[in-house]
């Protein structure tokens, strides 16, 4: 009896050992494949509380069969790293603004919703026909700026020929019929302005009524093309007031200011002939800021940060003396400096420029690189007591929210959404390399080695050259 029992135990142990070994073998990391790439979640930083203590972030997953992104929202305590669910299973919500009292405004299915931090369900505020996009509230919260697409040009056959309702043809007799991957369907995004109170939106004014111009810019512009003055008496918007071939060949966008009281519109960047984008204001309200390219027609021109002292009424290019190009920027809370991201040696890093104390002297401001490392810092979300909250990725890892600490130049992950995927993926070796170009200058490139690279073997090489 004891012998049979012992044999049974040995048999069960052997089976368990085989299963355990099979499990370990099944969990061995494997090379990255296109299928695994689609399994990775898309992490987005949606907003930061006024005190910098709570991050709202999105986790999106693509459904290939539906060709649709499903995104849930979460909150994260920046100090403790504690994560809580904020909005789940609702579709694809995006945060508009985190109010000082902790109320979060977000867009869901084109409508504005409200939900407090700590709650798990929201309240629908609006029911606007056609929905809202790119919502920006005024400083006092009593007015709202948003965009809607408006039919201006009848280029589709059903719009052009009402007697042919079953037709499906686009008719073009001029450029611009397509911009990058987006066809011109005759509809233009326009900025709309209205009063706002307790979710009720008043009669909206189309600031580009009847005009064939885009604001935000097509096809990739967003809420960064809109801004409110600190006083809430005017709105700023970006557009390129050109059509046809002129629109296709020129890059001369401008920043326009619409005065709510006088209803007058003025061009704030008249005479600046390249891209003028991303208007904003310092927290203390004294300075206006925007990005600007100098040369019309050059899409990949140097992008500079321009500041305008509203007291002195002087405009100053604060990065014009620096050999680099600005991606995006973020004002420090004390309004004394501006952080911005810029490419350097195959990476994207944080830089800092001091705001000049005397614009009239037109002295060149102090500018320095803040971060360094084999990573990209794509955007700066805000400031917390612990450091800067940023979105960062590497050559082998998708973007996640991080905390950047300047004191020791460290990036600490705040979100680790895809870590369980990467535990099952072999990480490829990546190294930077400088070679001499034909003009004798250093040419930087990244070398991404194959999985399980063997230096004694020969491999085919794929060369990718970035334009711009």
UniProtKB/TrEMBL annotation:
Taxonomic lineage of the native organism: Bacteria, Pseudomonadati, Bacteroidota, Sphingobacteriia, Sphingobacteriales
Signal peptide coordinates: 1-22
Stored PANTHER family: PROTEIN TOLB HOMOLOG
A Pfam family recorded for this sequence: PD40
Keywords for this protein: Signal
Family listed: Belongs to the TolB family.
Keyword Signal: yes
Keyword Signal: yes
SUPFAM superfamilies to which the protein is assigned, alphabetical: alpha/beta-Hydrolases (SSF53474), DPP6 N-terminal domain-like (SSF82171)
Species, as recorded: Candidatus Sphingobacterium stercoripullorum
Protein's recorded name: S9 family peptidase
Source organism, top-level taxon: Bacteria
